[in-house]
C-alpha cells in the first residue's frame, strides 16, 4: 500500500512539473517536426529554465514544435517508480519525436529503454554530460558517491544509440583566479554542494584543480553529505572576509519521501550569512544581486551550441555522426552591485568581464519611469475625458425624466469623489518623489524612490483599465464574443500565466479539479478575466501555502468555477461587501477596489451567480456559476 502511495505521489509531481513546461507552440504555419526536452530534475533551477526557454523561443520562431517534461529523477525511490514514469512517457508519446534533448545523464539512464523500441534510432543530444556514470540504475537511485567499482565510463551507457553529447565544462581554475583578482588576500576557499552524483563529480574536479594550481590555498568542501543547512549557515557565518566561496547547489531532503529534494531552498538567504561574495561555476540569474558571478558559459551561449547541433539533425544528419563537444563560449560574468556591497575596490574589477546591473546615468536609469509617468498622465486625461463624456450623454438622456435627474447627479458626484481620492493618492506619490529625485545623491535612496514611482504608475494604469471596463459596462458597450471553448485548455493557460506572477517558492498555484472533458459556449476572454482576477486577488493576500483553481458540474444545468487560497481570509461582514465598488480591506495592498465589482457584473451578464466563502486566518474561496451551454442557440446576454 505504501509503494502504491509513493507511485501516486510521483505521478502528481510528474504531471505538475512536466505539465508546467509541456508546451507546443507554432507560428506562421507549424512544421511536423517536434523536439522533446527531458530534464533530469526540473525547471525550477534558473539555469535550466533560462536555457530551455532560450532554445524553445528560437525553435518556435521557426515553426518547430517543442515539448518538455521534468523527470524528477532525484525523487525516484526505486525501479518500480522508474517503470511507472517510463510507462507514462511511452503512452504519452507513442509517436517518436524528431529529436530528444536530455538535460543531464540521469534522465538518459532512466529513459534509455524507450530508445530500444518506440523511439528507436531517434536522435538524442545529452547535455551536461559526464565521463563516468553510475554502473547500474540501482546505484543512481541510491545516491551513493561514485567510485571505481560502482561507476563505468559513460560510453558504456551510450554505445549503440543514435546519440551525441554536449558537455557543460566547469572552469574551476579560471573561477579561482577570478576570485583572487577580487580578493587578493584569499587564504581559504569553500565549495558548497549537495549529495547528487553530479555534485560528487564536481567536488572532485574542484579538489583536483585546487591541488594542482593553488597548493597553498585551503579548501573546505561543504556538502549535504556532512552538513545540515543549519550547520552550513553557521560555518559560513564563522568565515572571514578573505575566504572565497563558490556556490554550486544545495538540494537537501529531510527524509527519502520529501519531494522538496527537488528545490534549492537557500539561494535567497545564504548571502545573509557570508562575509564575502558568492561565486558560481555555472550560469545563474545575476540580475537579482544575489551572486557575484564567476567564470562560466552563459545559458544563452550554451543554448546556441545546442541549436547548432539540432540544426544539423533537422537537416538530416545523424546524431551518432556528430562528435561530442563542449557547449558555449566561456567568459567572466560579474554582478556590479554585489561587488560594491562587499567594498571591493573597482580597480580590481577585470576589464574583460561582462558586468550585470552596471550603474547608469540619471536619464538612462529613470527614462522608463519618466516616460511612463508622462504616458500615464496623458492616458489619465483621456480616460477621465472619455468617462465625463459618457456621463454627460447619460445625464442628457435622463434629463427627459425629471424624477431621475437628481439620482443621476448624485451617482456622478459619488463616482467623481471616489475617483478623485483613488487617483490623488498614487499621483501625489509620483509627483512628490519625482520632484525629489534630482536632489538625491545616495543611489540606494534614489532606487527606492524610483521603485515607489514605478509602483504607483502601475497602480494608476490598473485603475485606468478598471475605469474603462466599468465605463463600458455602464454605457452598455461591454461586448461579449462567445464561442465553444475547451475549458481544460483555458484553465491550463490561466495556470501557466499566473505562475509567472509568483515571487519565490512560498506559494504554489495549481489547477487541481477538472472534468475529463468539457466544452462550454462562453466568451473565453471574459472567463479568463474572471478566473485571473480571482487568482491575482489570492496572490495579493497569500503569503505562503497554495492557491488552487478548478471547476466541476454543480448540477445538470450549471457549472461551478472556484479559486481557493490559504491566505489571510475575511470576516463574515467583509464577505457581504467584497463585491461592491471601491471596497479595499487592506489599504497597503495595491488595487483599485473595482476588480471584484467588475467580476460580479460580468457573471450577472452571463446569467450566473458569484460568491465567496472565507474564514479569517484560514483562507478564502471565490466562486461563480455559469449556465452550462454547449451551442450558440443557448447563449444570450
Order of the strands making up the biggest sheet: 9-8-10-11-12-14-15
Number of strands: 22
Low-confidence spans: pLDDT under 50, at least 5 residues?
10-29, 254-262
SSE-based structural type: alpha/beta
Separate helix tally: 18
Strand content: 15-25%
Helix content range of the residues, please?
Answer: 40-55%
Structural description of this entry:
The chain is α/β, with parallel strands linked by helices and 637 residues long. It contains 18 helices and 22 strands. A seven-stranded mixed β-sheet has the order 9-8-10-11-12-14-15, with helices on both faces. A six-stranded parallel β-sheet has the order 2-1-3-4-7-13. It is globular. About 5% of the residues have low confidence.
Q: Secondary structure elements and their pairing?
A:
Layout: H1 2-20, E1 34-39, H2 46-61, E2 65-70, H3 79-92, E3 99-103, H4 105-111, E4 124-127, E5 132-134, H5 137-142, E6 151-153, H6 155-158, E7 163-167, H7 172-182, E8 188-193, H8 197-213, E9 218-223, H9 229-237, E10 243-247, E11 278-280, E12 293-297, H10 299-314, E13 325-326, E14 330-335, H11 336-341, E15 354-356, H12 362-398, H13 402-436, H14 443-475, E16 483-486, H15 487-499, E17 507-513, E18 519-522, H16 524-540, E19 545-555, E20 558-565, H17 572-577, H18 595-605, E21 609-615, E22 619-627
Parallel strand pairs: 1-2, 1-3, 3-4, 4-7, 7-13, 8-9, 8-10, 10-11, 11-12, 14-15, 17-19
Antiparallel strand pairs: 5-6, 12-14, 16-18, 19-20, 20-22, 21-22
Amino acid at each position: 500500500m505504501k509503494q502504491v502511495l509513493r507511485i501516486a505521489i510521483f505521478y502528481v509531481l510528474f504531471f505538475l512539473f512536466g505539465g508546467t513546461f509541456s508546451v507546443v507552440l507554432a507560428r506562421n504555419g507549424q512544421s511536423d517536426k517536434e523536439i522533446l526536452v527531458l530534464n533530469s530534475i526540473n525547471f525550477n533551477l534558473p539555469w535550466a529554465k533560462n536555457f530551455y526557454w532560450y532554445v524553445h523561443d528560437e525553435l518556435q520562431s521557426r515553426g518547430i514544435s517543442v515539448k518538455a517534461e521534468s523527470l524528477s529523477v532525484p525523487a525516484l525511490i526505486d525501479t518500480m517508480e522508474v517503470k511507472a514514469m517510463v510507462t507514462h512517457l511511452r503512452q504519452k508519446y507513442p509517436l517518436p519525436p524528431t529529436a530528444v534533448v536530455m538535460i543531464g545523464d540521469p534522465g538518459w539512464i532512466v529513459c534509455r529503454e524507450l530508445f530500444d523500441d518506440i523511439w528507436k534510432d531517434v536522435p538524442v543530444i545529452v547535455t551536461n554530460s559526464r565521463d563516468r556514470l553510475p554502473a547500474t540504475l540501482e546505484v543512481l537511485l541510491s545516491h551513493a558517491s561514485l567510485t571505481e567499482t560502482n561507476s563505468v565510463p559513460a560510453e558504456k551507457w551510450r554505445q549503440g544509440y543514435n546519440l551525441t553529447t554536449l558537455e557543460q565544462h566547469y572552469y574551476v581554475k579560471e573561477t579561482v583566479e577570478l576570485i583572487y583578482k577580487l580578493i587578493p588576500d584569499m587564504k581559504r576557499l569553500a565549495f558548497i554542494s549537495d549529495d547528487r552524483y553530479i555534485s560528487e563529480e564536481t567536488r572532485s574536479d574542484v579538489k583536483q584543480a585546487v591541488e594542482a594550481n593553488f597548493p597553498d590555498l585551503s579548501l573546505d568542501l561543504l556538502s549535504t553529505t556532512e552538513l545540515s543547512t543549519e550547520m552550513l549557515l553557521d560555518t559560513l557565518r564563522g568565515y572571514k572576509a578573505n575566504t572565497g566561496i563558490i556556490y554550486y547547489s544545495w538540494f537537501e531532503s529531510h527524509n527519502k519521501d520529501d519531494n522538496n529534494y527537488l528545490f534549492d531552498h537557500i539561494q535567497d538567504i545564504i548571502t545573509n550569512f557570508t562575509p564575502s561574495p558568492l561565486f558560481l561555476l555555472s550560469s545563474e540569474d545575476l540580475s537579482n544581486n544575489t551572486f557575484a558571478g564567476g567564470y562560466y558559459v552563459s545559458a544563452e551561449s550554451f543554448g546556441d551550441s545546442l541549436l547548432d547541433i539540432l540544426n544539423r539533425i533537422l537537416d538530416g544528419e545523424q546524431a551518432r555522426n556528430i562528435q561530442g563537444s563542449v557547449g558555449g563560449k566561456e567568459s567572466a560574468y560579474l554582478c556590479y552591485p554585489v561587488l560594491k556591497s562587499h567594498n571591493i575596490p573597482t580597480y580590481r574589477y577585470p576589464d574583460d568581464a561582462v558586468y550585470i546591473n552596471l550603474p547608469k546615468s540619471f536619464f538612462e536609469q529613470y527614462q522608463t519611469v519618466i516616460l511612463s509617468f508622462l504616458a500615464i498622465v496623458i492616458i489619465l486625461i483621456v480616460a477621465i475625458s472619455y468617462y465625463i463624456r459618457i456621463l454627460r450623454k447619460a445625464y442628457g438622456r435622463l434629463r427627459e425624466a425629471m424624477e431621475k435627474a437628481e439620482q443621476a447627479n448624485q451617482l456622478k458626484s459619488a463616482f467623481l469623489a471616489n475617483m478623485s481620492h483613488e487617483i490623488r493618492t498614487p499621483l501625489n506619490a509620483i509627483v512628490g518623489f519625482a520632484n525629489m529625485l534630482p536632489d538625491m545623491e545616495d543611489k540606494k535612496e534614489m532606487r527606492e524612490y524610483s521603485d515607489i514611482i514605478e509602483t504607483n504608475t502601475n497602480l494608476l494604469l490598473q485603475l485606468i483599465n478598471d475605469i474603462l471596463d466599468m465605463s463600458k459596462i455602464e454605457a452598455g458597450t461591454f461586448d461579449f464574443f462567445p464561442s465553444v471553448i475547451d475549458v481544460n485548455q483555458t484553465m491550463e493557460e490561466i495556470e501557466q500565466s499566473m505562475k509567472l506572477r509568483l515571487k519565490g517558492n512560498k506559494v504554489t498555484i495549481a489547477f487541481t479539479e477538472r472534468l475529463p472533458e468539457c466544452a462550454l459556449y462562453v466568451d473565453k476572454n471574459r472567463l479568463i478575466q474572471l478566473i485571473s482576477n480571482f487568482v491575482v486577488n489570492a496572490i495579493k493576500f497569500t503569503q505562503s501555502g497554495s492557491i488552487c483553481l478548478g471547476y466541476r458540474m454543480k448540477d445538470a444545468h450549471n457549472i461551478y468555477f472556484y479559486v481557493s487560497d490559504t491566505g489571510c481570509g475575511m470576516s463574515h461582514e467583509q464577505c457581504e461587501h467584497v463585491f461592491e465598488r471601491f471596497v479595499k480591506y487592506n489599504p497597503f495592498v495595491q488595487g483599485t477596489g473595482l476588480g471584484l465589482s467588475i467580476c460580479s457584473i460580468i457573471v450577472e451578464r452571463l446569467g450566473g451567480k458569484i460568491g465567496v466563502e472565507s474564514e479569517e486566518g484560514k483562507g478564502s474561496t471565490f466562486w461563480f456559476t455559469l449556465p452550462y451551454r454547449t451551442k450558440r442557440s443557448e447563449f444570450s446576454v
